[in-house]
Write a structure and sequence with these properties.
heterotrimer; A mainly alpha; B alpha/beta; C mainly alpha; B: alpha/beta; Rossmann fold; 2 domains; 6-stranded mixed sheet; 4-stranded antiparallel sheet; C: mainly alpha; ABC transporter involved in vitamin B12 uptake, BtuC; two-stranded antiparallel sheet; 70% helix; 1% strand
């Protein structure tokens, strides 16, 4: 018995993959960092017309391409942070734009305060403090939002996040902030009506705010590229560390089965809050970054925007950071580039969305994919194919043995763990029938009204069955034979003559 | 022993998959008119899956299911039920927010208004407890009453073959006795029954024939009485 | 503004939200999905109405009502088509995938209308094929500007109730509220007393058990979408009469508001949709009148949702969900 099991395990192990899951994950993370760094180096170099671009004869960077890098960084951060909530924590948030909005507004106020108010000149320092402030603000609001939101379930949670984002939008539309530098540095606030006089208007209620710094000048751009890159790296760092930590595993467990996690003593709401607030902070920082390159009104940070980020996440893969980076970049740049279809691009975009979802979730297509995959990974996962093969083998020996093909045993694939399961017990179950140590086969046979012996049966792998299992099958067959012979059942096809010893 | 008993149901070598999981691996069984056949086995053996496949909620990947000489495998439940098969599902699955009366009304969905009225009266006679709670919301009934309601609802379709999936589940022993008394009564009044049960003792005591199922295959079959006294069955399922 | 007028306005717009909310709530109850595209069906209904109405002789007796009927039928067909093409194959899919698909459908509807409206051949098509004059200066279809058409349809001016010198209940409000009540009553009767209606309730409760009763689940779901979408057409027509401008994105905002209303009332509950809609309409109009700044209206409206959910996690009339442990 034992040698059968170990032989089986050996053969499975031989066929297993070269890398363990852990190694694969480290490879994945490193690749992500590498890719982002590479992208930055290439684009930065291209922007500054450095050596690398000369090497690849890329020519002068076009105006539109120049403008992609920083927004893409911001949207990547937004999408990856949303993935924390949707992919890792398993909650649908339709209000992500709200946090970006807070970060955006805070960013504008703080940056102007620092640069125009206090005269800070170092863009890196200013932006760093700005983004920190923006993230902090968004995080606080995220925490406040999380309190009512995270105790709800599923669809209700989604709707409330939507409502919260709309409330934020509504409130920001009534917020007026000015910078007064006449008598020392002061920030003037007005809500809900604009009662401010004098000073430079920073946040102008429902209308577009003044952007940070000077928009689109080349002197700022290289610095912004670096800042954007730094933010993305920071995000990757935070997200990877969080999800791979013990806290991260707890968060993932709340996604997979909330009740099970609760019963194990994991404070579910707290962990969801951690994911939620972290995501809010990062979204806020992304918002601050956006404030550099565009003029948005609070009304722009609406449901459409939240959905856009959600689509980035879903098409990149829930829980898949690298995938999210790809999907965000592609989905941001492609609509811009496909100008020739300008009028139709949203149409195409919508169609692509629908098809992508339907095709990837259609059970029929999934079935095809699974069977194709299993054909390719024949040796590892083809449970049904094994059954098919074995059954054919038995059918061939059917007449000679009198064995019915349906008595075939199949090795269950234990999935990721790659440990072979003992052939005689697919699941350990206390109710499984266990034959007593010594069962005189003759006694049993007499009871069943007949005698039946089979040649040694084999498992799908080619290993011979152990005695116990063999006997159980024989017993089962004997009972069946008895039933058939008693006349109660009709046996289709062959008459069983060749089974008596 | 009577050869002239008509075969109502024949399940021939079906394989049922849940995605990539091979849940039923070549199961065959038969049910004859006026019998009580029981399918026993441990948790996860595949008994409910078998019933679900027969009734059309699941589609077998291969194999055939024949009901009264008509092939029903691959058909949808809504087409199979009007043919005379009725399933009282595992966990009862009564319509919680509907009243007792409305639940029974739904049971007779495939029949005419007049037939529903007649059958409902019959059900209330057979199950007086349900009559008492006629206008009560089903979700507020006790476990035993819910089981009765589920069975009554399944009977509203006036099935030729009634399938019961673990009727004793979650019920106190005295209620289990009651339910099985009802099953005997039903059998007496001419309903053929296919019973899936985890409570092997009760099942074998009421059935004519039995199949034993383990991890997706039938491992034993025979007369209920014989299996009741079989050593292997005793040890595994009857706790001796 | 006098509070009575505000309340009447609130009930009117609330009635429209309620009609839309019914569509959301029925579909959610039966298919357990948020049909994000529902709001855009409203828009399609309105466009269809205008196109049909322009084609008919308005002076004739049946004219405008026929146009309404055409819009309802077309939207019902549209709803059935969307269900069949986009949602049916996703029955077993995770709800996120369904939501994204619904979003895709929503954008698709908006953009198809956008494209259709901007195509050169549209008014030519209408003129030559349907005998309709759509645009007067060959520029764009004049749908958007012609909301007056609805009020003229049933001569709503004549229905105005003058309660006092300063207070008039506009005929439009009466019609809207009356239509809403009628729909709710008919729908409730339908759901409680007809075979298909009972089937809908059963499928909402427990899909497999319903199948075991012999109910054809596909057909039931299709009918639900048809009814919901048909109602959306009515809502679209009434909405534009208020007046509201008709552009491809018109349906989004009332769609979201109605959706929130459905949740407030308890999603899956028909009376809940009614109450949620009316409540939302009232809160909206009251806020708009009494708050210092109109932009704050939304903040108040959405706060109502949060407050309600805090005290009644499944909405005002929502069902208690018992999670199986």
């Amino acid at each position: 018995m034992q040698n059968n099991a170990s032989a089986l395990q050996e053969s499975v192990r031989r066929r297993s993959r070269a890398f363990s899951p852990k190694a694969r994950h480290i490879l994945y993370k490193s690749f992500t960092f590498l890719l982002v760094t590479l992208a930055f180096v290439i684009f930065y170099d291209w922007l500054c017309e450095g050596p690398v671009s000369g090497l690849f004869a890329m020519g002068k960077i076009s105006r539109s391409v120049k403008g992609y890098f920083v927004p893409v960084c911001a949207w990547v951060v937004a999408a990856v942070s949303l993935n924390l909530v949707v992919g890792f924590s398993g909650e649908l948030s339709l209000g992500h734009a709200g946090f970006m909005s807070i970060g955006y507004s805070t960013g504008i106020v703080v940056y102007n305060l620092l640069t125009k108010g206090y005269g800070w000149e170092n863009i890196y320092l200013s932006m760093a403090v700005t983004m920190l402030a923006a993230g902090l603000m968004a995080g606080i609001i995220g925490f406040l939002v999380g309190i009512p939101v995270l105790r709800l379930r599923g669809d209700y949670l989604a709707i409330v996040t939507l409502a919260c984002a709309e409330i934020i939008k509504s409130l920001l539309q009534c917020l007026y902030v000015s910078l007064d530098t006449t008598d020392g540095v002061r920030l003037l606030f007005a809500f809900p009506k604009n009662t401010l006089t004098g000073g430079t208007a920073l946040l102008k209620g429902p209308t577009a705010s003044a952007p940070i710094g000077t928009k689109g000048t080349t002197t700022d751009l290289p610095a912004l590229y670096i800042i954007g890159f730094a933010l993305v790296i920071l995000t990757l760092f935070v997200v990877f560390n969080l999800t791979d930590s013990r806290t991260g595993r707890a968060i993932k467990s709340t996604r997979d089965n909330r009740i099970a996690a609760e019963s194990m003593g994991i404070p579910v709401t707290r962990h969801k809050m951690i994911a939620f607030v972290t995501a809010a902070v990062l979204a806020g920082m992304a918002g601050a970054l956006l404030a550099n390159k565009s003029t948005y009104q609070p009304a722009n940070f609406n449901l459409d925007m939240s959905i856009m980020v959600l689509v980035y996440v879903v098409l990149g893969g829930l829980g898949n950071v690298l995938g999210t980076i790809f999907s965000t970049t592609a989905l941001y740049i492609l609509p811009e580039e496909l100008r020739f279809m300008k009028d139709y691009r949203m149409l195409v975009y919508a169609l692509v969305l629908i098809f992508a979802m339907v095709l990837s979730n259609n059970p029929v297509i999934k079935g095809w994919v699974t069977s194709i995959v299993s054909l390719v990974k024949r040796r590892r996962k083809s449970i049904n194919l094994f059954a098919e093969e074995s059954r054919n083998a038995f059918a061939a020996g059917d007449d000679a043995q009198g064995a019915n093909a349906r008595e075939v045993l199949v090795i269950e694939d234990a999935g990721e763990n790659e440990t072979a399961v003992q052939p005689e017990a697919a699941e350990p179950d206390s109710n499984q029938a266990e034959l007593p140590e010594e069962v005189p086969a003759e006694a049993l046979a007499a009871q069943a009204g007949g005698r039946l012996t089979l040649e040694r049966l084999y498992t799908a792998d080619g290993t011979p069955l152990d005695d116990e299992t063999q006997r159980r099958i024989e017993l089962g067959l004997m009972l069946y034979e008895a039933y058939v012979d008693s006349g109660k059942g009709k046996k289709k096809g062959k008459k069983k003559g060749g089974g008596k010893a | 022993m009577s050869e002239n008993k008509r075969r109502i149901l024949s399940v021939e070598d079906i394989h049922v998959f849940y995605g990539a999981i091979h849940a039923i691996k070549g199961v065959s069984l038969e049910v004859f008119e006026d019998e009580i056949v029981t399918l026993i086995g441990a948790n996860g053996a595949g008994k409910s899956t078998t019933l679900n496949a027969i009734t059309g909620l699941l589609k077998p990947r291969s194999g055939k299911i024949i009901y009264e000489d008509k092939v029903i495998s691959g058909k949808k439940a809504s087409k199979i039920v009007p043919m005379g098969l009725s399933l009282c599902p595992e966990g009862r699955r009564i319509f919680q927010q509907l009243t007792v009366r409305e639940n029974l009304d739904m049971g007779g969905y495939t029949r005419s208004r007049a037939e529903i009225r007649t059958s409902m009266d019959e059900m209330f006679e057979r199950f007086p407890r349900l009559k008492e709670r006629e206008r009560q919301v089903a979700g507020t009934l006790s476990g035993g009453e819910q089981q009765m309601l589920a069975m009554a609802r399944a009977l509203m379709a006036r099935p030729k073959l009634l399938m019961l999936d673990e009727p004793s589940m979650g019920l106190a022993p005295i209620l289990v006795e009651q339910i099985f008394d009802i099953i005997r009564e039903l059998h007496g009044s001419g309903v053929t029954i296919l019973l899936v049960e985890q409570n092997a003792r009760m099942a074998l005591s009421v059935a004519d024939r039995a199949y034993v199922m383990e991890t997706g295959v039938i491992t034993m079959t025979g007369k209920a009485g014989a299996l009741l006294h079989n050593d292997a069955v005793q040890k595994a399922y009857l706790g001796n | 503004m006098d509070i009575m007028s505000v309340i009447i306005n609130g009930l009117s717009i609330g009635s429209i939200y309620a009609i839309i909310a019914l569509g959301y709530t029925m579909v959610y109850g039966i298919a357990k999905m948020l049909n994000f595209a529902h709001g855009d069906v409203i828009m399609v209904g309105a466009y269809t109405f205008f196109a049909a109405a322009h084609a008919r002789n308005l002076n004739g007796p049946g004219g405008p009502f026929a146009a309404v009927l055409i819009a309802i039928v077309l939207c019902a067909l549209l709803g059935m088509a969307i269900e069949f093409l986009a949602y049916r194959s996703l029955r077993q899919a995770p709800s996120l995938a369904v939501l994204i698909t619904a979003i895709g459908v929503s954008y698709l509807l908006q953009n198809v209308m956008q494209t259709v409206m901007s195509l050169d051949g549209v008014d030519r098509f209408f003129k030559n094929v349907l005998g309709v004059v759509i645009s007067e200066n060959n520029d764009k279809p004049i749908f958007g500007a012609d909301t007056k058409m609805i009020t003229d349809l049933v001569n709503m001016q004549a229905l105005d109730i003058h309660l006092s010198d300063t207070l008039t209940i506009p005929g439009l409000a009466i019609v809207t509220i009356a239509v809403n009540m009628l729909i709710v009553v008919l729908l409730s009767l339908f759901v409680n007393y007809t075979k298909m209606g009972k089937a809908m309730r059963s499928v909402s409760e427990d899909r497999s058990a319903a199948q075991l009763m012999g109910i054809n689940v596909n057909r039931t779901i299709t009918v639900t979408f048809a009814i919901g979408s048909g109602l959306a057409a009515i809502a679209g027509i009434l909405y534009c009469a208020f007046p509201h401008e008709l552009v491809p994105t018109t349906g989004s905002i009332p769609g979201i508001k109605a959706f929130i209303a459905a949740v407030i009332g308890g999603i899956g509950s028909i009376p809940g949709a009614l109450i949620g809609g009316l409540l939302l309409g009232l809160v909206e109009q009251l806020s708009r009148s009494f708050l210092p700044v109109t932009e704050l209206t939304d903040a108040v409206v959405y706060s109502v949702l949060i407050i309600v959910l805090l005290f009644r996690p499944t909405g005002l009339l929502g069902k208690k969900i018992h999670e199986k442990v």
